[in-house]
Amino acid sequence: MPRKPIMNYMREFLGITGQDADDLFDCFIETFEELCQKLESAIEQRDVMEIRRVTHSIIGSSSNLGCEDISQHAMDINTAAKSNDFEHMHQPMQKLKEHLEIFRSCK
Amino acid sequence: MSTKIKVLAVDDEKFNLMLISGCLPKNDYEVTGFTNPVEALQTFKKEFFDVILLDIMMPGIDGFELRKLLRKISKYKPIIFLTAMVDDSKSTLLNEVSWDPYTYYMKKSFTQKALKQKIDHVHGIYLSQKQLSSNYNRMEAELTLAGGVQQLLLPSWCVANEHALTSSLYLPKSQVSGDIYAFFQLDEGKYLLFIGDIAGHGISAALYMMAVQSFIKKTTYDKNFAPHVFLNELNEFFCNELGGSSYMTCSVAIIDFVTNHIHMQSAGHPGLFICSSESGVIINSDNYKKGGIPAGWFANTQYNPEDNIELDFPDDALIIGVTDGLFDICNENEASLAPSMLSEIIGSLSGSSDAVTFPHRLVNAITQMGYDHLTDDICIVALEKKICDPTLLELLIPPSLPEVSKAAVTFSQQNNNPKTAVKIELLIHEYLNNVIIHGLDNKNSKQRIFLSQKKDEDKIVIRVVDRGRNWNYNPDTEAKTDTDNDGQLYDAAASSGRGLKIIRDITSSIASSSYCGMNESIFTIENKE
Known about the structure:
The complex is a heterodimer. Chain A is mostly helical. In chain A, 79% of the residues lie in helices and 0% in strands. Chain B is elongated and about 95 Å long. In chain B, β20 and β21 form a beta hairpin. Chain B folds into three domains: 128 residues, Rossmann fold; 232 residues, Phosphatase 2c, domain 1, CATH 3.60.40; 135 residues, Heat Shock Protein 90, CATH 3.30.565.10. Chains A and B meet through α1, α2, α3 and α4 of A and α1 of B.
């Protein structure tokens, strides 16, 4: 369950605790869900601009909560988008969806 | 008053705004967040913020575009781009940040400590800049005031004494100047001319200048007074009263307009020029190679009578004193005027100028040659002996409408032809009323307007010299012979109102010139019986 390490991260590195931390965690799940949907759609439509924009957002929000593995998967997709390498986007996209499922279970 | 730092945050992701708000302690920071850049901009126009945090990649208006819009409202408010930009190989971010000195950036995986430090740091820089700017503006205002006060302590730009007419041009490099000059009567026909240049520029030089002015006023000018005596006292004043921390170059001259004789000494200062248009002779007192040590340089400097220079001058002489700033005026290639060239210009101009316009015409001629970059203060003084000429009447009047009326009457009464007398009175009224009401921004007690009336056989020439705004009209210099014209032509041509039409009706010609802030207008009126 990612909730505890993220809460610890928020307390230690961001100074966010209590209800604020809960609200932020829930918002992250919501945002992550939304972004994953947009990303999947963008990959299907081969919309490179949108892929880069969405992965940029995922990288920003996940790295701010210490979720480096989510950040890395998004970065891999972003890198593949630069060279229009849609084949190499599927695996990291799958990883992101797996992470999403884990977060959904924390709600 | 709240000491919290007010932060405006703009990011299209609500999560990021929550993060920033949660991260910054509410005791010290007040965060207002927007996911919509347009709404953020509208709020920024109405409310005060100390620091702005911007995301870069946003749909619609991105961070860079939003910054441009914010900068139209505030040029100096610190902006921090928060970015997760993974690839800046084209240096886009670097370029966008570096061209604006008040833009910073930070990576999005920040900690609370790093974010606080960044915000506090940029806010601190902004406050320091603001304080510096406020101090600078206050200093500028005080300098401008000081410059105004300094000008009030100097003689008017044109002064008429019993025996002489003088004119001066005083051009500080910045608001205040270290140049100084004084001209006043000592005795019957004898006058003191003092012109000098305090070392350095700016406030310290200006303060010394005012101290020297005070010294000049307090000095005793008795029968033993001589240039070397004055310089010895001035040297002592610099070394003792002023603490010996500065010095000045200067020339002091006793000019006798009855015997046409100059008794002078120079302490390291450019010499006086004495120019006679009749004989074509130009004398530069520097050629006597006497004197040379600036006052205040050494406490034990002794100025001797042997270093005084004795000169005679003709009745029509133009006596000119300058400070060395004139030699330091540069052109665009930073080359300054050669002393020999300046002498040539002075000699050439003296043939066609009188004392009234000489200083301004000299600077005008130099700037027209491309030497228009001031690197030092400039002061030019021109003097001429008053010659008794029954056909010439000269007046210096303050800028007041009652004085204009008096002058108009005085001038008109010099003419036996009643028609001409009326025209003169009308011309002076119309023209000078316009100069005073519309042309002079500065009407202080030092402001003067010079008028002269010269009678020739069949014409009267009225000359007006003022230091007001340059007139925009281009007067017709062709002779008008029909003064009974019904005015239709003038309705079309006149652009300055009814006064100009009247003047053009009265006069047969108008000539107007402007030199470095001085206007000279010459009106010719036919004087036929």
